[in-house]
Write a structure and sequence with these properties.
- The structure is a homodimer of 189-residue chains.
- By secondary structure, chain A is mainly alpha-helical.
- Chain A folds into two domains: 90 residues, Orthogonal Bundle (Arc Repressor Mutant, subunit A), CATH 1.10.10; 83 residues.
- Chain A has eight helices and three strands.
- The longest helix of chain A has 28 residues.
- The C terminus of chain A is likely disordered.
- The interface between A and B is large, with 71 and 72 residues.
- The first copy, chain A, binds a DNA duplex (30 and 30 nucleotides) through helix 4.
Chain lengths: 189, 189
Amino acid sequence: MPDDAQSAQLLKAQDRFIDAWGRMGSVWGISRTMAEVHALLFVTGEAMCMDELMDRLRISRGNASMSLRALLEWGVVSKTHKDGERRDFYTAEQDVWAMFRAILRERVKREVEPLLESLGEVRELNPSGGKNAPESARELDQRLEEVQEVFGLVASLGERFTGANGQGLKVAAKLLAKAPGGTRRKAKA
Amino acid sequence: MPDDAQSAQLLKAQDRFIDAWGRMGSVWGISRTMAEVHALLFVTGEAMCMDELMDRLRISRGNASMSLRALLEWGVVSKTHKDGERRDFYTAEQDVWAMFRAILRERVKREVEPLLESLGEVRELNPSGGKNAPESARELDQRLEEVQEVFGLVASLGERFTGANGQGLKVAAKLLAKAPGGTRRKAKA
DNA sequence: GCCAGATTTCAAGTTTTTCTGAAATCGGCG
DNA sequence: CGCCGATTTCAGAAAAACTTGAAATCTGGC
């Protein structure tokens, strides 16, 4: 195969990944473009400047800037510098487990923590403690407590997995995924 | 406290929960109304008909109908009947762990499985196997494989937790959340 | 301190998602 | 059957989310 055809093929495969990751992005509650920028940086493994991103993804400068900022906040992309270059360059975290941990951490922060906070407030608002508190209030409180328990556990799990030596996640996941039977699926990795 | 004030207070607390759950719903990628309908059924624990839902949440009949259908598909709400009544009534799953499993199952289905499928397609498209396949193609394939591995593991985990004796989740979560050290954090629950 | 290139901000425009309401369909009962 | 209340559907309206582009701001080198 001639070199040109090979590299065209490569770009095409990259684009397909970018597209797939971008579509998942919108399912995951982040903007599609943000996911695409991440996908491009990840899949090529190269450091790129804003203009390269804009060209390849056909997005505006403003959009690129905002997406990059968000990715930096998520911790899955970092700024780098090239010797004599004035512009900023960006690279994606290449370790997939580290990337996954960063995503998990951010999602727990957005999708679980606010709920736990609200649950606390609602329970406070609902005066189930009074000696003659009505049955209904006690029932409500109990329901809320159960929800709090489950989501609190999810948050702790997330913390354990994403914290310090998150390496643990990899091990735990592998163990849990195959070890003690339960479903029909045969071990996969 | 007079009965009226008590029940007003209860309704207020319920509304706050409904609001909180609804807001999370939109973060979780489902429509806010759908989450609110679920929240109302869950938090009251009562069987309700469509008109009650519409009144309490101030939504249209069409919206109520569509939200209920989606909740039935998710498996967190079910249809019930009242003796001589002609209309349908709906109740929410009351076991919080069962509810959580249903949510998890559906989210893995939407947020992980399509990605795995795409990854397979992209790897096929990228001909990294050829004897003189360029370095770049092999690199791409390796990246894709790693992503596949991680998300594949997540999917198996999800399956184990939501499948058959999903009761396991509760236990596993509790164990993992506190048991074997690794991070600096002292056990929390 | 000032210039030039680079980045950020944000009001206005665009696209996507969600909601409404009324017409069509359903389904049990006499 | 044919009726009637209940539910579903879906085209259009409304709301929410995302993107653009140009002006404002920043930054490093001289």
